[in-house]
Predict the structure.
Amino acid sequence: MNVLELVRPELRGFTPYASARTESTQRAVMLNANESPWPPEGHAGLNRYPEPQPAALRERLARLYGVRAGQVLMGRGSDEAIDLLLRAFCRPGRDAVVICPPTFGMYAVGAALQGAKVVEAPLAGDAFTLDAAAVLAACTPATKLVFLCSPNNPTGGMVPLPVVARLAAALCGRALPVVDEAYAEFADAPGAATLLDRHPNLAVLRTLSKAWGLAGARVGSLLADAEIVRLLGSIMSPYPLPTPSVDAALAVLGGDGEQRMRQRVALLVAERERLRAALARLPEVRTVLPSQANFLAVRFADAADAYRRLLAQGIVVRDVTRHPGLDDALRISIGTPQENRRLLQALRMESAA
């Protein structure tokens, strides 16, 4: 099937905005973009618009994720890719998406902004396992996107690759499974990008915000069939990545950057398991969900009280009690060993009191 048949009909022949950087930038005199001819003091190059999809960064990310450059679309974190997918595939008031709560809230928020119906196929049981049969049952002819978060935020569980492949095959010609792998570096499992060449209706989200430490730079990637990448690139803002963000990404990805990232990930994973065991021993903790991400979902006897007490001691965690099935839980990011000790000390002090 041609995956573009799933795109909103009015966008299939869409003519994108022709940005100034589509012209050659090798000319000595650039008078085509109404830019200032002078850079700000101390900021060489920032008077010029950046490339819409910087080639050097695109090639580096393609190598990192094991795909071809034409399968990579870069944007402002994963959020922009979610928004682009919704705008491209969902007609307001007519089309729908499937989500698997409890999960990342931006899928439902983005769908609501686009006017797409949100259908839920909740994760199953105390382990919050994805039920592939339930997901497929939730899909109707109106369904265009199925969001799968793996590792899942906020529970930390994975969607096994055979399940992703099963869903992609079953939805071929009907919908796009979108696998959000924001936390993939923390998981001991291959990524869904390995399935792209077999399933043209599959999309994968990756980011440099988590393991790579670039949350403030907002550099994310959509990995998908080249036709999807081309179409989404035609409807996105012409200059999505600021030059400082591109420079920061190339810097952390260069040299021994990948080795440093993996060393830090190994430390965080070790701290995650140490913290999980220590939290499970506290009297006020009911259970700690297993996690393949850089956080833990922790069930408390009184989550609201635990949240307030930690905040009073200068420790900020995430209240996830609004999520279905997590009305007693807080999500705790894994910090430095020192920060994790401070968290445990604060909870032990309160438990002793």
